[in-house]
Amino acid sequence: MRSVFVRGEVSPGDLSNLFASVGAEGQASTSYAFGEVRVVLLVGRKFAFRSNDYLGLVILAATNGQNQRIDVSYAGAGSGLLGVQLGAGESLETNLFNAVLQLLQARSLSYQEATAGQG
After folding, report:
1. Residue 106 class from Cβ within 10 Å (0-12 exposed, 13-18 middle, 19+ buried)?
2. CA distance 60 to 16
3. Which CATH number is correct for 2-111, 3.50.50, 3.30.310, 3.40.630, 2.40.128?
4. pTM value?
5. Tens digits of per-residue pLDDT, 55-90?
6. Residues contacting residue 17 through CB under 8 Å, at least 6 positions apart
């Protein structure tokens, strides 16, 4: 999983559009709020020839209107011929995360990538 902390906010629609930038399709979305914090969960998928299966993609974003945390992850990826992991999921996750960073840069939003263990 890759995460980024943002000063500002990216809309759920803009985040959802990022699936297309990596050749994936959106499958489902939901959103809810806890007090001032709004959360959106976006699920997409892409067929990967490397794993001969669909890979799931997830974007989870939580915001209070001033700051936002965006998490990107993949699910699945299967294993290739003879059980060898072919890295399709990690590659797709990295491409989607890079698309998030490009969007943040295009909007001139300040951000910081999260390191492992940062919550």
Report:
1. exposed
2. 10
3. 3.30.310
4. 0.87
5. 889 999 999 999 999 999 988 755 555 554 556 678
6. none
